[in-house]
């Protein structure tokens, strides 16, 4: 069963790009949906296009509500939206399904599958916090892109790896992207 990765127009597309690569490297089937702004930010921040990631992911057009991932009968294990813009967060909290990304997230929740939302913008307004709370109450995991520092990161890749590792933890996927507190390194 596959995992959907949604990339929106918030800064921090490196989290979605890294997650796609790690999931593929772990041998998992990855389906991707990028918003129009998500594609632009991904190219601006990472120098990466959807075509560059094609070896790792099956892309679906965000306007295509007939895509397989729009249906609850399609075998998907979970979905991650990383990064999640506040615009997309609001749409998800309101139950909107007018784009493939929001439809797939709604289907993920209605089917009782794991939805992980990685908000990246800050600071949060009361509306942002209420939208996060509404999604959390509906069963989504809210996982802000807030790397830890107890593992004493020495570079940006280790900071990114910590957030991607926490996403994988939330999905119960084993990894070695960061050292565990009190556990010998493997």
Question: Which features characterize this protein?
Answer:
186 residues, alpha/beta, Rossmann fold, 6-stranded parallel beta sheet, 7 helices, 6 strands, 17% strand, globular
Question: Can you put this structure into words, describing what you see?
Answer:
With 186 residues, this protein is α/β, with parallel strands linked by helices. The chain has one domain: 3-Layer(aba) Sandwich (Rossmann fold), CATH 3.40.50.1950. 40% of the residues lie in helices and 17% in strands.
Question: Would you kindly provide a brief summary of this structure?
Answer:
With 186 residues, the protein is an alpha/beta fold.
Annotate the secondary structure layout.
Layout: E1 2-7, H1 13-25, E2 30-34, H2 36-46, H3 50-53, E3 58-60, E4 76-84, H4 86-93, H5 100-110, E5 114-119, H6 126-137, E6 141-142, H7 156-170
Parallel strand pairs: 1-2, 1-4, 2-3, 4-5, 5-6
Helix pairs in contact: 1-7, 4-6
What is the overall silhouette? globular
Radius of gyration: 15 Å
Beta-strand content: 15-25%
CATH superfamily: Flavin prenyltransferase-like
Tally of domains: 1
